[in-house]
Design goal:
- Its EC number is 2.4.2.10.
- This is Orotate phosphoribosyltransferase.
- Pathway: Pyrimidine metabolism; UMP biosynthesis via de novo pathway; UMP from orotate: step 1/2.
- The structure is a single chain.
- This protein is of the alpha/beta class.
- It is built from seven helices and ten strands.
- The chain has helices at residues 2-14, 47-64, 79-89, 130-141, 158-166, 177-186, 192-203, and strands at residues 18-20, 26-27, 33-34, 36-38, 70-74, 93-96, 109-110, 118-126, 145-154, 171-176.
- The chain has a six-stranded mixed sheet with strand order 7-6-5-8-9-10, with helices on both faces.
- The termini are far apart.
Length: 210
């Protein structure tokens, strides 16, 4: 697994999916400020890399969650990758909105999902885990059993690890913060002083730059 995490980190760096902006930090949906951003959606624009991500997510599901009989993507970042994964596995696919539509059927879950289906959730990126676990909650309210979640990347924050543990959801990711930063330093994508700044931010991301 470590080999995969290093390999995928390298591929993300090659397509410049990793952004470092210490002087103009990103603002996440959670309100946190961050000097670092992983834009996994860039992988969709490169056919070879898109296929790589799809197959590695499929392998993770077959190995860790073979009982899954439906796939759910978390909107909007994981809709495309989730659909690709479901197609490869020949399983039903739905996606889960962050909030119900304000018109029409006002659906939260888009698609046809048997309430008895055992669902594996596909996500693109895990930060605090809030939006990902809201999708899990919606699926459980629909009556579904969540067998686990797969994602391309996680920042590995303790708050997210606790949230997943509390929600009893097993998470498997293709790579993570540690492997991306290590690979970025090795390849000259970032400098040692950048690593020190990133580690400082990661100690208390909720209060960084406040």
């Amino acid at each position: 697994m470590d080999k995969l995490k290093k390999e995928f980190a390298s591929k993300l760096l090659k397509v410049k999916a990793i952004k470092l902006q210490p002087n103009d930090p990103f603002t996440w949906a959670s309100g946190w400020k961050s000097p670092f951003y992983c834009d996994n959606r860039k992988t969709l624009s490169f056919p070879e890399l898109r296929n790589y991500v799809k197959l590695e997510l499929v392998h993770a599901i077959l190995e860790q969650f073979p009982e899954a009989d439906a796939v759910a993507g978390v909107a909007t970042g994981a809709i495309a990758q989730g659909a690709l994964v479901a197609d490869e596995l020949n399983l039903p696919f739905v996606y889960v909105r962050s909030k119900p539509k304000d018109h029409g059927m006002q659906n939260l879950i888009e698609g046809e999902l048997n309430p008895k289906a055992k669902v594996v959730v596909v996500e693109d990126l895990i930060s605090t885990g809030g939006s990902s676990l809201k999708a899990v909650e919606a699926l459980r309210k629909n009556g579904n059993e969540i067998v686990g979640m797969v994602a391309s990347y996680t920042y590995g924050f303790p708050i997210a690890e606790k949230a997943f543990a509390d929600a009893n959801v097993k998470l498997v990711t293709l790579t993570d913060y540690e492997h991306v930063v290590e690979e970025a330093l090795e390849t000259g994508y970032i400098k040692q002083e950048d690593v020190e700044l990133l580690h400082e931010w990661r100690k208390d991301p909720a209060n960084w730059k406040k």
